[in-house]
Design brief:
The complex is a heterodimer of chains A (about 375) and B (about 160).
Chain A lengths: L6 H5 L6 H8 L5 E2 L11 H12 L12 H15 L9 E5 H13 L5 E6 L5 H7 L3 E6 L10 H7 L4 E7 L11 H13 L3 E5 L24 E6 L11 E5 L2 H14 L5 H13 L1 H25 L11 E2 L10 H12 L1 E2 L1 E2 L11 E4 L4 H17 L1
Parallel strand pairs in A: 1-10, 3-4, 3-5, 5-6, 6-7
Antiparallel strand pairs in A: 2-8, 7-8, 9-12, 11-12
Helix pairs in contact in A: 3-10, 4-10, 5-6, 5-9, 11-13
Chain B lengths: L2 H12 L5 H8 L3 H13 L12 H4 L4 E9 L8 H8 L4 E6 L6 E7 L2 H12 L5 E8 L5 E2 L2 E2 L14
Antiparallel strand pairs in B: 1-3, 1-4, 2-3, 5-6
Helix pairs in contact in B: 2-3
The chains are: A alpha/beta (about 375), B alpha+beta (about 160).
């Protein structure tokens, strides 16, 4: 029998966290800092509106682009909060999570052999999505020295004639790094001069703790070449509702829409109803969750530095990314031993690509009590080491 | 009163047993600054006192609480204030509010048992001058007090590790 698995499917690496996941499942009393999602329940007003819509029989397909009211409300929200201007009829598309938005954005712009720069460390999907689209992912390393921002010189060095796009995600998973307006200006010229597309995944935008998030498309002349991705999962604790969105100039948005209508048809309608309610009434819930994350971050990062794991202050998302280099262990060894010896689960930084090695990702989207418990166990671990 | 003060109040309202160090780290303020601000909030009575939300039903002490609504004839020059002050002196009155609607004042009263509460209402509250009508609602079960729910919510299942 032939090997039925396609070359492309063979090419993409298996998820680096799978082994960990299986190990954690076999253990008891584990404090997991490995979860990339909010620990809050979805605010009840959002749940209630979803339940009510189902009771009212709102269970059909929506238009491919998504509910008109959701797009209109979202368009106003983005203008008000981020100074982002997208027409709700022609430049906006509701997707099944940001995961789908990312996939179709990459497929919409990638021809076979195109090189797509991926700023790393980053969420694990970008590279594989590029590969599946027939492109070649090229890692762009961000380092702790630069607070995990993109260094313009490193970017310029990697651009070739084949480079088609740059994928960035700030605030960043796993580092918590952010790009300010001036940081973005620093890379805008390179993107424009080399005629690249910028794909900016801003799903953690609302979780910005110092100042306001600056959306890439608002900087310089980037708007006309930027695809902005965002969603409701992180800000409103709605990960399971699977609602994201893609905003882009009309031609790019139309291309993404074509793919979306063939592969997904539309995002789940009850999720869209919930998302609309989130925009209408969950501002305060969101703010109080953000405030809680900020306080946990302050406690946890201070704790990490106290026990001897140097950690820069993450300015966004809900991850701390301490360096474990001085323990002499690799990040994979560190994470495995910490789990086996002290039952604390963290994710090795190398899972997130170039620049992640020598670090571990700790999600502080867990209760303060669990954070304190985890710090105590990590302290024990370091002392015995 | 600025955002930092509001931050401190929210933290303390949620858990007033945190140490000054913890609060200082959480809010990125110096320890002395936290102490100074909390001191000022106490001095100006913005912080009335530090108390505990107790689910008394779990203690099985049999205490009974009731919501009592009163129709009151207001006094010239004083409105409802003087009678409200008099009512608020009773130890049994835990909360007292002026409200809109059919009734004027709303009290939350606790007593050792049902008789205790009804005696208090009939002997002390109802006969007071200017009180025209009372309505007593015995509280059968508390589901939420001051933002705290009193029923078990199952922990939603999350993946132990996710990207």
């Amino acid at each position: 029998m032939r090997n039925f698995v396609s070359q492309r499917a063979q090419e993409i690496p298996p998820s680096g966290i799978r082994k960990f996941f299986d190990l954690v499942l076999t253990m008891e009393d584990v404090i997991s800092l490995g979860v990339g999602e909010p620990d809050f329940n979805t605010p009840w007003n959002i749940c209630e509106s979803g339940i009510y819509s189902i009771e009212q029989g709102v269970t059909s397909y929506t238009s491919n682009r998504g509910l008109q009211t959701l797009r209109d409300t979202l368009s106003r929200y983005l203008a008000q909060h981020y100074n982002l201007n997208y027409d709700s009829n022609t430049e906006m598309l509701i997707t099944t999570g940001v995961s789908e938005a990312l996939d179709i954005a990459i497929r919409a712009i990638t021809d076979p052999g195109d090189e797509i720069l991926v700023a790393q460390p980053s969420y694990v999907s970008y590279g594989p999505c590029v590969t599946l689209a027939g492109g070649i992912p090229v890692p762009l390393r961000c380092t702790e020295k630069d607070h995990f921002r993109i260094n313009p010189d490193s970017l310029a060095e990697l651009v070739t004639k084949k480079t088609k796009a740059l994928v960035i995600s700030f605030p960043n998973n796993p580092t918590g790094g952010v790009m300010s307006e001036s940081d973005l200006r620093g890379i805008a010229d390179i993107v424009i001069d080399n005629d690249l597309v910028l794909i900016s995944d801003e799903v953690y935008a609302e979780l910005t703790y110092e100042g306001r998030h600056c959306s890439a498309a608002t900087v310089s002349d980037l708007w006309q070449r930027t695809i902005t991705l965002n969603g409701f999962s992180k800000a409103y604790a709605m990960t399971g509702w699977r609602i994201g969105y893609l905003c882009a100039p009309e031609d790019l948005c139309d291309a993404a829409l074509k793919i979306h209508q063939y592969i997904m048809l539309c995002a789940p309608v009850m999720g869209q109803v919930g998302a609309l309610e989130a925009l209408r009434s969950a501002e305060e819930d969101k703010n109080s969750m953000v405030n809680e994350y900020r306080q946990r971050r302050n406690l946890f990062v201070a704790g990490l530095n106290r026990i001897g794991l140097p950690c820069h202050v993450p300015e966004g998302a809900f991850y701390a990314f301490p360096s474990i280099e001085k323990t002499g262990l690799s990040d994979v060894e560190f994470a495995e031993r910490l789990l086996k010896e002290q039952r604390v689960a963290v994710v090795p930084g190398s899972v997130f690509g170039a620049g992640g090695e020598g670090h571990v990702r700790c999600a502080y989207a867990v209760s303060r009590k669990e954070l304190a418990g985890a710090l105590e166990r990590m302290d024990q671990f370091l002392q015995i080491l | 009163m600025d955002d930092k003060d509001l931050d401190l109040l929210r933290i303390l309202e949620e858990n007033s047993r945190l140490s000054t160090e913890e609060i200082a780290t959480m809010t990125s303020l110096a320890k002395a600054e936290v102490e100074r601000r909390i001191g000022a909030l106490e001095a100006t009575q913005v912080i009335k006192r530090y108390s505990t939300v107790v689910n008394w039903e779990k203690t099985g002490n049999g205490e009974v609480s009731a919501i009592i609504e009163l129709k009151v004839s207001p006094e010239r020059d004083f409105g409802y204030d003087r009678i409200a002050e008099r009512l608020s002196r009773f130890r049994q009155v835990k909360s007292l509010r002026l409200i809109t609607g059919t009734y004027d004042l709303q009290l939350i009263v606790t007593g050792k048992n049902m008789q205790d509460v009804s005696r208090f209402v009939s002997e002390h509250v109802a006969p007071m001058d200017r009180i025209r009508e009372t309505a007593t609602h015995i509280i059968m079960k508390s589901y939420k007090e001051n933002g705290n729910t009193f029923f078990e919510q199952p922990e939603p299942e999350r993946l132990p590790i996710s990207p």
